[in-house]
């Protein structure tokens, strides 16, 4: 029984890793689409979101079956419950990356962003690419250092998000650009929040520290 | 054993009902805050979000304990897994209501919305108040009719959300109002999405139909 459980747990862990890698690709691609008007990258992110959604369904099904058949307890139970929740977080991150890609595709060959906003958004994308790398590393080696780095660094993204409002309020941009800056800034900030939430969940698997005691507050109303 | 399980399941179901009622109150209050510049209502929503967060933690803890001690299968397992996921959905709805309340408090005694945007937002709030009633009913009596009504009606909210972009792009509003219309419209639209997702999860408990096969697509990039 125990061997089967471990095999099945390994399968679901592999699927979860796969989701994390897909999310990293989606974030990379959304950044290319947004900053370099790469419409093929945009389309790849949009099409690829279906795979992330399908993986979520599969991971949840597997977790429910594991719970039904194997009655895991202690660490194993923590792993299964956290995996269920991580799958939903990754699914949501895929949606957000898709939204960014859709915005880029909509205005192609122009950028949805004015020149003035490009540097701040480039910094946000850099930050999120790095965070996505850390998330994949964290899942692979379960080293809490990566979780800490994700959780502690999130303030930087919030600071950048704050700057986007200054850009959105400038008279030098069109109304449509104001709308796009606000929405794109929000999508990227939420991507960071979900990464923090994912990092806490992995930390919970590793250490048993319950991340729900320290929920990610979405302080997203910080509007100008 | 079985009696204890049912008792414990009843306790967690009561806590989940409590969360749904708190979310309904938060949506009602956010609407009052936004449309009637009721700053006390805003503060109540903001302060009350801590209770919703605490209930989420408690529901998740109880579900994990149930899974560990009782090894539920079939319908009981579906109830526990869906309850876990519903708690997270409700927690998120509380955050979104709080964001609306925070926007109202920030601009008090003025409204964050221009006059021109009030009717559309009033319709969105009406819609969400009705949806929140249906959610509470659904949890109480597990009648799939309420789930269907929530799921099928969501298009109305999307149409209203679409209209907010026209208002945001008008030259008659200030830049700050454009920013606020976009964010507030997004928060309300996401509240509706989460209500749909919650309705699907309750339908899953009732009928065994797996809601993850028909995920709520967040089509939120519909930016003008």
Automatic annotation (TrEMBL), chains A, B:
Single GO cellular component term: cytoplasm
Entry's Gene Ontology BP terms: intracellular phosphate ion homeostasis; negative regulation of phosphate metabolic process; phosphate ion transport
Source organism superkingdom: Bacteria
Matches recorded under Pfam families: PhoU
Gene3D superfamilies (UniProt xref): Phosphate transport system protein phou homolog 2, domain 2
Keywords in alphabetical order: Cytoplasm, Phosphate transport, Transport
Domain PhoU: 17-103, 122-202
Localization per Swiss-Prot or TrEMBL: Cytoplasm
Subunit annotation: Homodimer.
Functional description taken from the UniProt entry: Plays a role in the regulation of phosphate uptake.
Family, per entry: Belongs to the PhoU family.
PANTHER family: PHOSPHATE-SPECIFIC TRANSPORT SYSTEM ACCESSORY PROTEIN PHOU (PTHR42930:SF3)
Name of this chain's protein: Phosphate-specific transport system accessory protein PhoU
Organism field: Bifidobacterium saguini DSM 23967
């Amino acid at each position: 029984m125990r061997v089967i459980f471990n095999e099945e747990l390994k399968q679901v862990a592999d699927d979860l890793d796969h989701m994390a890698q897909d999310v990293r690709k989606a974030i990379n691609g959304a950044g290319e689409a947004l900053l370099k008007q790469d419409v093929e990258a945009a389309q790849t992110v949009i099409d690829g979101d279906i795979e992330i959604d399908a993986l979520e369904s599969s991971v949840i099904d597997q977790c429910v079956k594991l719970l039904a058949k194997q009655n895991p307890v202690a660490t194993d139970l923590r792993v299964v419950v956290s995996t269920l929740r991580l799958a939903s977080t990754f699914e949501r991150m895929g949606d957000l990356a898709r939204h960014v890609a859709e915005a880029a595709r909509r205005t192609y060959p122009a950028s949805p962003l004015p020149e003035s906003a490009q540097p701040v958004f480039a910094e946000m994308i850099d930050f999120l690419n790095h965070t996505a790398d850390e998330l994949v590393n964290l899942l692979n080696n379960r080293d809490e250092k990566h979780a800490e780095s994700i959780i502690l660094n999130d303030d930087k993204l919030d600071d950048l998000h704050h700057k986007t409002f200054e850009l959105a309020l400038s008279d030098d941009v069109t109304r449509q650009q104001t709308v796009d800056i606000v929405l794109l800034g929000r999508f990227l900030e939420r991507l960071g929040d979900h990464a923090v939430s994912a990092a806490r969940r992995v930390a919970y698997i590793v250490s048993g520290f319950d991340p729900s005691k320290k929920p990610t507050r979405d302080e997203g109303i910080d509007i100008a």
